[in-house]
From TrEMBL:
Annotated protein name in UniProt: Mechanosensitive ion channel family protein
Mechanosensitive ion channel transmembrane helices 2/3 domain location: 72-113
Organism classification: Bacteria, Bacillati, Bacillota, Bacilli, Bacillales
All copies of domain Mechanosensitive ion channel MscS, residue ranges: 115-179
InterPro entries: LSM_dom_sf, MS_channel_1st, MS_channel_C, MscS_beta-dom_sf, MscS_channel_2nd, MscS_channel_C_sf, MscS_channel_TM-2, YbiO_bact
Annotated source species: Alicyclobacillus dauci
Entry keyword set: Cell membrane, Membrane, Transmembrane, Transmembrane helix
């Protein structure tokens, strides 16, 4: 490596231009920088226009993800060509530099297999559209909202705020909660002595009333009936089809409304309780 850099340095000193040429070279570098910015902006606009064409049928999340990917590829490509042009302007032997970089790359490549795996997996994730920015997912054992997708890393933010940075090559399982409608499941326990028909009619009334108010309920609401006979209550289950990832908010609101309706109707929601039987044994002397 030392010999390689000595060759590059000697070649640069040998071909060192005079002050007037250096000034012109600096002007050319500035022009190259300006042109690079113009090319990047034009390319980004072309990509955005292509994705926004009516013939391109794709949801906004998918468009945003792919636009971000193509923007990065364009930027890296233009900057790479810019660096090559700048080195050429200052009379650096590009062929010798690339040959040395190839040797270094071969040496580093054996230790960078995990990075290559991350990049390849990231490309598959992007092009297969396994998930996108804004999706609620469970990656491996971490659940949250995707806030960044790169060719090497994915960042997921949990609802409590912490951010998990996951190398794409380490992603083994993905569960995407944002692709299809979700189901709100409302389980309500009533006392064994309660009128089950009245309880189910009350739940059904509340659910249909909530359906008219709640825009996140996008499908059918149903009272399925008795789900289980438990130690202290009879469990009644109702369901509502909701927009993706909104089922928990709907469940909380439905449970509150049902509790209020039960209180107004005098329907008991029992707490856990046990019946204890005490048996006394009659002594033998009592029979004598």
């Amino acid at each position: 490596m030392g010999h390689f850099w000595d060759v590059v340095k000697a070649d640069f000193i040998k071909n060192m231009p005079n002050a007037e040429v250096i000034i012109w070279d600096i002007v050319k570098v500035v022009i190259f920088l300006i042109l690079a910015r113009i090319i990047i902006n034009i390319a980004k606009r072309i990509v955005a226009r292509l994705f926004n064409m009516q013939r391109v049928r794709m949801d906004k999340r998918r468009k945003d993800t792919l636009e971000s990917l193509f923007d990065n590829v364009i930027r890296y490509t233009v900057y790479f060509l810019l660096i090559v042009e700048i080195l050429s302007t200052f009379h650096v032997n590009i062929a010798a530099l690339l040959a040395g970089a190839g040797i270094v790359g071969l040496a580093v490549g054996f230790g960078a297999q995990s990075i290559i795996k991350d990049i390849l997996t990231g490309l598959f994730i992007l092009f297969e559209d396994q998930y996108g920015v804004g999706d609620t997912v469970q990656i491996n054992n971490f659940t949250g909202t995707v806030i960044f997708i790169g060719v090497r890393l994915t960042r997921v933010q949990a609802w409590t705020g912490e951010v998990e940075v996951i190398p794409n090559g380490q992603i083994t399982t993905v569960r995407n909660f944002s692709r299809t409608n979700s189901m709100a499941v409302i389980d309500i326990g009533v006392a064994y002595g309660a009128n089950l028909k009245q309880a189910m009619a009350t739940i059904e009334h509340v659910m249909h009333e909530l359906q008219g108010e709640e825009e996140n309920i996008v499908g059918v609401v149903s009272v399925l009936g008795v789900q289980a006979l438990r130690d202290s209550d009879v469990l009644i289950r109702a369901t509502a089809e909701c927009a993706p990832t909104t089922q928990f908010a709907v469940q909380r609101k439905a449970q509150q409304r049902i509790k209020e309706a039960f209180d107004a109707a005098g329907i008991e929601i029992p707490f856990p309780q046990q019946t204890v039987w005490l048996q006394t044994r009659v002594s033998d002397s009592a029979h004598s």
